[in-house]
Amino acid sequence: MALEINSSNFESLANGDKLVVIDFWAPWCGPCKALGPTIEEVAAEYEGKAIVGKCNVDDNNDIAMQFGVRNIPMIVFLKGGEVKDVNVGTLKKSELTAKIDALL
To answer: Which candidate in 3, 13, 26, 29 is catalytic?
Structure first.
């Protein structure tokens, strides 16, 4: 299951050693809802290898602003506190896993 990323856990996750994949989303966003099951599957498959989480932009505007989120869904890939890749819009599962594999 994808981890809920919020203000209380963001800093420790973002600055850790593991790859962190953050799906910025909102409950009212149709494409976000379509991407949701893919994020959940990938979170389960990469458990222990990468942290895959979801950040609700309505509830965590401070984190969304930090990454300049203007359109959702937006997926940010962090490693060692640095942004390694960004994807705006939906992705196929194979595209998402290819990006993760390249960054592991």
So the answer is: 29
Which class for 84: exposed (0-12), middle (13-18), buried (19 or more C-beta within 10 A)? middle
Annotated catalytic residue: which of 14, 32, 51, 52? 32
- Radius of gyration, CA atoms only, the chain: 12
Structure tokens at 21: 């994949």
* Cis before 27 (ω within 30): no
* Six-digit token string for 87: 């994807």
| Residue 15: predicted pLDDT | 86
Q: For 43, list phi and psi in degrees, rounded to 5.
A: -60, -45
CA atoms within 13 A on the CB side of 100: 24
For residue 32, indicate whether it is catalytic. Answer: yes
pLDDT, averaged per 10 consecutive residues of the chain (104 residues), comes to: 92 90 97 96 96 96 95 96 94 96 96
Q: For the chain, how long is the longest CA-to-CA vector?
A: 33
